[in-house]
Amino acid sequence: xxxxxxxxxxxxxxxAGCVLALELAHHGVRSVVLERSARPPRHPELNLVTGRGxxxxxxxxxxxxxxxxxxxPDSPAAVVWSRALGETPVLVTPVPSVNELRRRYAGRTDGAxxxxxxxxxxxAGLTGxxxxxxxxxxxxxxxxxxxxxxLRLEPDRTVATVLDAATRVRHELDAGFLAGxxxxxxxxxxxxxxxxxxxxxxxxxCTLTFRSDGLRHPYPELSTIIANGMTLTRRPGDLxxxxxxxxxxxxxxxxPAVLLWQRFGIRAAEIxxxxxxxxxxxxxxxxxxxxxxxxxxxxxxxxxxxxxxxTCLADAVDLGWKLAAAVTRWGGPHLLGSYEGxxxxxxxxxxxxxxxxxxxxxHFGRLAASGATAAQLASVLRxxxxxxxxxxxxxxxxxxxxxxxxxxxxxxxxxxxxxxxVDLTPGRDGRSLAAAxxxxxxxxxxxxxxxxxxxxxxxxxxxxxxxxxxxxxxxxERPSDWDAVLDVVTGHQREVHVFT
Length: 500
Ligand SMILES: Cc1cc2nc3c(=O)[nH]c(=O)nc-3n(C[C@H](O)[C@H](O)[C@H](O)COP(=O)(O)OP(=O)(O)OC[C@H]3O[C@@H](n4cnc5c(N)ncnc54)[C@H](O)[C@@H]3O)c2cc1C
Known about the structure:
Helices cover 31% and strands 27% of the residues.
């Protein structure tokens, strides 16, 4: 059965698929989203969305809904390294509570802190909220119970084969663009013949969510304890989550409660969830073939996960606004081309960081087993284990400083959905520049700012900001050739960032 062509077909309504569809809708572009599972996700594992991730969701009006699913904002946490559960820790790194960070961020005037603090919530809570927003959006056609099974790439479109589980009818969907947001085992990636290049030999792990009333530690809820080869997180109530490596003896995972007792001496009153996973640090060889793209975990599979949610989220936002620019025809060919350059580079950086984390954990385990002193172990961790960054800004790229204006408003909240030209010139030079862009069909909002402190701090008087808060171009004065600037930032000429 054939349907009229859809501008963008999104495969998978997980985190990446939902955010991509919502980003497209934010720019007025319709999409069809296929989700093979007819039921909402049940993942009980915890996900952390950093401050930067929350900034991206705030643009889409989703920050409050996501935060409503979050853990207690007054609860601080800690990362605790210990030789064994119950032993005096070797190193404790405190993590401030969400509300404490909110207070600290409010006191910053340099724009270097994120607009929102981090949030910790279950994978099901996060995806559930995003899927609700997708369902309510008139520009998104969500089809639950529809499974993508294959595709045919043509020069200017992708034709997807899809099975509707309710009717058992197979459909052919014709799409201007297709985005594979179908997770770590991506069928889209397989159909495109794209290899996942792994940096390590995958090994079997699992995540156990369980209740235990006998297990105690003196740290606040949501603290993470790394001990005996297990990463254990205490959750509200007597719920716990443990990530652990599986031996050959644990092959069938038939009795996780016995595994917890025999390996770690933990008595579980109830096993709530078991998620097997392969330790892997894989990045797709390419993120694009013709009009089909890979997004989120289909493009990079990082287990144990760290800031994976943020990486998936930023992939979806990046591709979303660039696809919207292509569909509405103001984006040039190099703009879509820049998706792979920007996001694959970020995935490689993330992989590098995770490799260092894994190496530090293995080193710690070996030294602890060989009887190293607590001081020696702490020194190794300080040197080798990458720090935890709840702001998520270390790799955020040339992001606009998130300043609060003298009137109290956040600059980020004044930006338009597309490009915004922030104008600090006394003569409002940006007005005619924005008008010239609009006359070329490029959506640029003009944002005059009359803010003395900002003017004294910023050398640039004109700052062109992309939809994802990244500075595309900035200058102390009017450019001599504005058309050339527009050609570059819209991808009609190569290179996406221009600084003068
Ligand atoms: C145990 C565990 C713990 C984690 N902890 C953290 C953490 O602490 N911090 C963090 O940042 N990240 C964490 N993550 C990772 C995080 O959950 C993922 O990064 C994120 O969910 C990936 O989003 P995604 O949309 O790319 O893929 P997914 O969430 O996997 O979504 C893919 C969607 O595609 C659908 N789909 C698949 N195939 C098809 C098909 N053929 N047709 C139609 N639909 C299809 C699936 O049903 C699913 O809904 C964890 C993951 C796991 C498994």
